[in-house]
Amino acid sequence: MSRFTRRELVRAVGAAALGVAAWLHLRPRSEAQRAKRALRIAHLTDIHVQPEGTATQGMVNCLKAVHEMSDRPDLILFGGDNVMDVFAQNRDRAKVLADLWRKMVREYCEIPFRVCVGNHDVWGWDKGKSGCSGNEPEYGKKWAIDTFELPNSYYAFEQAGWKFIVLDSTYPHGNDYKGRLDDEQFGWLREELKRTPRATPIFVLSHIPILSASAFLDGENEKTGDWVVPGAWMHIDARRMVELFYEHPNVKLCVSGHIHLLDKVEYNGVTYICDGAVSGAWWRGNYHQTRPGWGLIDLYPDGSFTHEYRSFEYPR
Ligand SMILES: [Zn+2]
Predict the structure, then answer these.
(1) H helices within 40-182, ranges in order?
(2) Is the dihedral of CA 60, 66, 72, 74 positive or negative?
(3) Residue 259 C-alpha to ligand 1 middle, in angstroms?
(4) What residues have their beta carbon closer than 5 A to ion ligand 1?
(5) Cβ-based neighbour number of residue 182 at 10 Å
(6) Ligand 1 midpoint to CA 66 (Å)
(7) Ligand 1 centroid, distance to 65 Cα (angstroms)
(8) Cα of 15 to ligand 1 centre, how many Å?
(9) What is the pLDDT of residue 2?
């Protein structure tokens, strides 16, 4: 027999659920704070949720930190690699992770959210490990589109006077991938920028960074005597994207994840933020010098913004 009273048991076993009930519905906010800015965003990237270990508790704790803010964000952006991995996993494992993701956002996320697709959210492209033939109906990006209920693997929307462009960075390369847009998506991006009024500030969300300092330092990229940054770590088509953004000075901010390291690069007046990782080192603490965390981004009507990297109660 348990020596817990029922009340204690409920508290112990159902702590997450009870906590949720309390924090999901908190919404105090100073109207003065709200009036100045256009939108407050929580950017949660590289959650890598899975049933094993501390991942689900960590995701709950992070969402709790966001929901409990006295000045609560209006929007959550999930930056990709939302699940641990389906790229090299079989159908059964992909189903477990799809079900888990849906359950987590249904039960622990009340704030409206949008989702970006990461490389680990693409089902089965590593055919050797996944056993996929490529003919499965949910193969590849379709798994992510279904699981995250997306209109497409890349899309745009407008909110609070800003234009948001959500890119799909994962480009096939044998059984692996590179960070780049295919020509169709690049053409779509060009048209999307062209038809956005100049006065409308633009926020670009990608999983893989377009430009990043972190990508140089994650790995022994200097061992040949030259800096060699893998095309899977930073957009290999960054040059054409940077040139395109140069024609559209209303592109203000590009936010990514993927590297699990935190950096901020400013180039041609565009700020590129690689926003760490909720999972840190895949739920094993800090990754190099970057602690687990998430980005708090405030957008203003004039195209300016602030960014702050925030911690949460990381399960050990
Ligand atoms: Zn990634």
Answers:
(1) 55-68, 91-108, 127-130, 141-147
(2) negative
(3) 7
(4) 81, 118-119, 258
(5) 13
(6) 22
(7) 23
(8) 31
(9) 42
- Asked if residue 7 is part of any domain, the answer here is no
pLDDT tens digits for 5-20?
A: 444 444 444 444 545 5
Total number of domains constituting the chain: 1
In a domain, 142, yes or no: yes
Task: Compute the distance from residue 286 Cα to the ligand 1 centre, in Å.
Answer: 17
pLDDT in tens, 213-223: 999 999 999 99
- Residue 246: its H or E element: helix 238-246
pTM summary value = 0.90
> In this predicted structure, which of 5-19, 72-86, 271-285, 291-305 has the lowest mean pLDDT?
5-19
Q: Which domain holds residue 304?
A: 40-310
Q: Is residue 2 situated within a structural domain?
A: no
Three-state SS string over 14-59 comes to CHHHHHHHHHHCCCCCCHHHHHHCCEEEEEECCCCECCCCCHHHHH
